[in-house]
Design a protein that fits this description.
Blueprint lengths: L1 H19 L3 E3 L2 H25 L1 H6 L4 H16 L3 E3 L2 H23 L1
Antiparallel strand pairs: 1-2
Length: 112
């Protein structure tokens, strides 16, 4: 049940970020749920593999390369989901940073 609540709250965060950030388009709430689900799957399965493969670069950049990995995964979700559009790499980078921020705030609210 907690996973479903997290997906729904992440979908709300995706809609808010799409409203605030020019260059990100989410057609409706159903699309936002799919974005939250696919991004969650990508971040839980593909991101650890990419982090291990790019560990030297991540260490060399003091962890900043993780932002590049996040943006690449957002762009991958952009290609897979109809109704979700991100205009470019820098928009995907900012989207992933804002999404991480909103998810951490929502996680603190769920804990209380």
């Amino acid at each position: 049940m907690n996973y479903i609540l997290k997906i729904l709250l992440t979908a709300v965060a995706v809609l808010v970020i799409a409203y605030l950030l020019p260059g990100v388009v989410v057609e409706d709430y159903g699309t936002a749920i799919w974005v939250a689900f696919i991004v969650g799957i990508l971040f839980s399965i593909l991101k650890p593999i990419l982090v291990i493969l790019t560990l030297p670069v991540t260490i060399l950049t003091l962890g900043l390369f993780l932002f590049v990995i996040n943006a690449a995964l957002i762009l991958l979700a952009n290609h897979w989901i109809d109704g979700f559009s991100v205009s470019g790499f820098w928009t995907a980078l900012l989207f992933s940073i804002l999404l991480s921020f909103f998810e951490s705030v929502l996680q603190k609210l769920i804990e209380k």
